[in-house]
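Let us practice reading a record.
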Amino acid sequence: MEKKYLPRIADKALDEFLEASGAVLIEGPKWCGKTRTARKKAKSVLFMEDPDQHNNYMKIANTKPSLLLKGKTPRLIDEWQVAPILWDAVRFTVDQRSDSAQFILTGSAVPLDNAVLHTGTGRISRFKMRTMSLYESGESSGQISLGELFNGTEEIQGFSSLTIEKLAYALARGGWPKSINEKENIAVRRVYDYIEAVINFDVNRVDGVEKNPYSMRALMRSLARCSASAATNETLRNDMASEDASLSAPTVASYINALRRIHVVEDLPAWNPAVRSKTAIRTAATRHYIDPSIAAAALRLNQNGLLQDFNTFGLLFESLCIRDLRVYAQAIDGEVFHYRDKNGLECDAIVQLKDGRWGAVEVKMGSSEIDEAATNLIKLSSLVKKQPIFLMILTGTDIAYRRPDGVFIVPIGCLKN
């Protein structure tokens, strides 16, 4: 029996993109809910990975791909990258029809370079779909809106019912739609199975290059240990040395690129604002998995293991907050970055809208470091020429409030888009 569909923040985005474009591409990791969301809008569906029809579909794609595009619109083409020629066929058909909402494409892997002839600019819109945020899974009360903070809200109030134990479970389970409201042991087990599929199948299929499963597993553990840091490939290689010293620097880079192509990793880019001084801004991205549960499973940590290792729990809690901030920011036409300069001043997340408005966010799981985090946020705001709309500390605590210095304290269990 199919589980009840849980509304997604991406539902509204898909409606808007379909209204504006002839075709929409939804990208994201396997199992994040792309197909289920797309099917809610589609009038006909083509499953390119249907085992009964795959060979037939591939023959048609290589002979006359336009035949696969016939059907009621919007027509969903699931896992289009299996036959990259479909991209150009969709782009051409959109041109011919000159109408919106013709196709929805979903893809859990980026095809090889030069696999398509045309970028699709002006015909095919695209957006990234991630795993479910805590608000989408029903675990955040949603009393504090990121969009309302950008609109200048000065007073906030809210309460999170997410205890540290519940946060540990939400992190270990992840935001995978099929695992929401599932038995705890089954939900956490599924992430382990997901990693095994990535290591043994997905990273090889994405570029046709066989990869050593032992080395890939060691790399994924290293990436997990380096979550929320600006670790270089060489740093990762050195970190792996005790487990696997055989990988060269180019091989590490190629393995990470494979993980990136299947949307398993999503690094957080650096923010480069106009500052008042000549402070040099670091440009390295920080490392994150698309969902923090992948990092926990790579380290063989379930919710109980996280509660016994608060150092790791804290690092992965930051990744959980980054995931949710990305989901919420995307819904209000924003992006998420991080900041670090040569003087050591850092900020875990900068949320910036396309009109240039920005807010700074520090992540602290407990309350003991809130004062220091607030000081850092205020210092950052004094350095940047354009003032922030808000300063916020995102926490694992329970009460949302505004400090006398204007910094918002917001439990992750209160936030929404």
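A brief commentary: The CA atoms of residues 193 and 297 lie 9 Å apart.
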